[in-house]
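LAB NOTEBOOK - FOLDING QUEUE
OPERATOR: T.R.
BATCH SIZE: 2
PURPOSE: Compare the predicted structure-token outputs for two unrelated chains run back to back under identical settings.
PRIORITY: normal
REVIEWER: second-year student, initials M.K.

ITEM 1
FIELD SEQUENCE / FIELD STRUCTURE:
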Amino acid sequence: MILLHGMAQNAWSMAWLAHDLRSAGYRVHNIGYPTRPYDVAELSARYLAPAVAACEPTAPVHLVTHSLGGIIARHYLQHAHLPPGSRIVMLAPPNHGSEVADAVRSWPLYRWWMGRVGQQLGTGPDSIVHTLGPIAAAVGIIAGNRSIQPWFSWLIPGEDDGAVSVASTRLDEMRDFIVVAASHTMIMFNREARAQVRHFLRHGEFLHPAC
């Protein structure tokens, strides 16, 4: 089990999920990586690729990602494969970019704090998301629809989590999709989201409310 946090965060942000998954019997590698010095390709090569290589080659390798972590995983899987039986859960991934990144990319503080990767996550033609094709993996996506950043939400069409629209999280090839009442920065702590992560890893689908 490999966990990948989001931009400008650290491994601690995934600590509750790591605890949940260890308690469920998984061997967990909660990766911490610096987002400021590198772009997506470098983060994939420097951090995710070695972590996957260190796992047992014939056993499933599950990924749980938050935000930027999902884009790093997609980049890695453009030219690599996980062992059979592997599953991926993406929390609030900007799979089609973020309008917030478009709006703040020229701000000096943002450029300094987020570095090169912060320039790659917009919706424009230079966004890395437009270079990523479908991935051959069992993917479940959890989106949030609560915002604690209303000053950014007005930039985003439709439901959003304060940084990414619900629509932008989707992938055509995803196996399942669910929306929880959580914000972008807190979704990995949300009790329902954490339970849904465990359910998808075990069953390959989310637990949807009965109609």
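ITEM 2
FIELD SEQUENCE / FIELD STRUCTURE:
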Amino acid sequence: MLVSMATFEHLPVRVGGLAEAVTSLGESLSKVEDVMVFMPVHGILQEEETQAEFSYPPDRYCDFRIFVGERIYPVTVWETERRGVRIFLFSNEILDHPNVYEPREMFMQKMVHFTKAVPGLINIMLKKEQRKPDVIHINDWHCVFAGRLVKKYFDIPFIFTIHRLCRERISVHELNEVNLSELVDPRYLEGDMFNIEQFGGHHCDQLTTVSYSYLNEEWRTFFSTFEGKTTYVWNGTDSTFWNPEFLKYTEHPRAKRRELVLKENGLADGVMFFNVGRLDTEQKGVDIMLQAFEMIMRGEIPGSDTLREKMRLIVLGSGDPRLENETRRLEQRFPENMKALLTYLGRETTREYYGAADFCLIPSNFEPFGLVQLEAMCMGCIPIGSRVGGINDTILDLHDFPEECTGRLVPPRNPAALARAMIEMAQISLDNKKQVMLEKMRHRGREHVIKNFNWDKAAERYINVYQNKATIKLPFVSYSEPY
């Protein structure tokens, strides 16, 4: 089988978890199938990180032209390779823009150019290689229109994976202006606006999302419309990278690693909580975490009076300026307890923090899947997360599964509940009699991820989806499907 995947992110282009998911899935699929990835070049060809990730220099695969509005644009497609996956990078004056999604006007132009360029490449591939992909796997709404055109003109099955519902819309006027009026489907019009994900769900052959709980949570609002061709495929994580053996201080026990990492950040040793990712209030719940931490530091949570001096929080990430300012405010107010690293420091540095921290905070309001909890568990860092989406599917709660637990789950959007869980876990970590229990949790967490959430298992299930053999299980409200 020749599997093609269309995406706006693939390492080294990383905005969120989509890049990790598409990259790792392609690599696992390539062990058993031929795989190619289509992506806008995003101006990365001359970057050192690109040269490290891909076979370099890339080959010029083909040149052709596309008609957009009143202009004809040239397109060059570059071919390279990464770990057995053929990568096709689409380049022109629009597709070369270094920003992936912002500003919106630029992004919409890039989406249109990519939509028109993907069928152009497949047409040339038919001539050069006398074959076409057996499926096109579309990752998120940015590539839906490309999938629809490929299905329409080449009779290639179109698989649509929603990594996160965005409910994006585009106006009929915008589509008409760029000569894509053939895509307008009156069933998905809301006034003059066109619902892209509803369109994709209708026209795809199989619709998937990335966790069982997220499918349940969004069943009535979206997925039930496409009952009969809808299922889930859990993401995985790369446990070979998220491996304690690669830590800078790997020869030291965890407590010593924690002490050294905290010292590097100007903090004394203590119970270390770690949060990493995009700072936003809509999805990630970082405001909830900051409120919980301040409640603890003010002594508002039972047990915090005796523990707050021991509490340490390191926040690594960037995003909403208001949250960045709030994070800095708390850092200034509690300089002996908190450090804000408002930047992106790379996967290797993040691995060091996972390998040192006692607990990882994942306070999401919703989370289709989430990779942070898997990465943390792989590194022996116990996750404390919201009981939503993929976090709910992947963490076995201390109270729900006392003999199998790998972390702690709390209600979403509830700073007091999160603060209580932080105090509870801090008390356990400071109790010498319970150290063996914590070590078992850390060990089980890594085993749990490797066994149940690896990319080879995800690839196997996706192949069943491609072949229309995936078991479709109607959702029901429950904790999770058995592992």
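REVIEWER COMMENT (ITEM 2): The chain has a mean pLDDT of 94.
FOLLOW-UP: none requested
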